[in-house]
Design goal:
The protein is mainly α. 74% of the residues lie in helices and 0% in strands. It has one domain: Orthogonal Bundle (Tetracycline Repressor, domain 2). It contains 10 helices and no strands. Helix 4 packs parallel to helix 8. The radius of gyration is 18 Å and the shape is elongated.
Length: 192
């Protein structure tokens, strides 16, 4: 396992999630077995089965845990007025959620076929469409909707594109957020 793994938490269930996510990202979801996860954790398969019966159960639990801040953001955004300031705050909070869920997004990038085949892929797509609805200008043009979608996509792509670029991680995150915010502001028809 790579030295970049940073366990989120300490209990066994959460350690299983962390190790599984690292292995899924490194070798692919399809090529990772429950046996390998158990071996990496130095536990028996029976101990692993106590917490998760299948790899998909592990993956679904990861999405539930790591996507919770995104769901909370969407719920918050749906209660806010459709102002430029609220939309900027949505992007700022989304940037923080992405940073916290970077391993999950790495998995999604590396396992796109799996994402299409599993139910979590549709759930994630639904989240992104709800987020887009919060950012777009009512009655906006197709070009403006594309700008809002591109703002979200730029945040996702930035995680990967800048991962191996030299520099401070916080500075990279701020730069990605600035670009996404610029796109979203343009979509609102506002010049700052």
């Amino acid at each position: 396992m790579s030295s970049t793994a940073q366990p989120r938490r300490g209990n066994t269930r959460q350690r299983i999630q962390d190790v599984a996510l690292e292995l899924f990202a490194e070798q692919g979801y399809e090529k990772t077995s429950l046996r390998e996860i158990a071996e990496q954790l130095d536990v028996t398969k029976a101990a692993l089965y106590y917490h998760f019966k299948t790899k998909e159960d592990i993956l679904v639990s990861l999405f539930q845990d790591l996507a919770r801040p995104i769901d909370e953001l969407i719920a918050w955004g749906e209660t806010q007025p459709s102002t430029l300031e609220a939309k900027k705050e949505i992007l700022r909070r989304y940037s923080d959620a992405l940073a916290a869920a970077a391993p999950l997004f790495r998995f999604m990038q590396e396992n796109q076929a799996t994402m299409r085949d599993l139910s979590v892929g549709e759930t994630f797509k639904s989240r992104m469409m709800r987020l887009l609805e919060l950012l777009k200008q009512p009655g906006g043009t197709m070009t403006d909707r594309v700008r809002c979608f591109t703002a979200i996509f730029a945040m996702h792509a930035g995680i990967f594109a800048l991962r191996d670029v030299e520099g401070d991680p916080e500075e990279k995150q701020e730069a990605i957020l600035e670009v996404a915010t610029d796109l979203m502001v343009r979509a609102q028809g506002v010049t700052e």
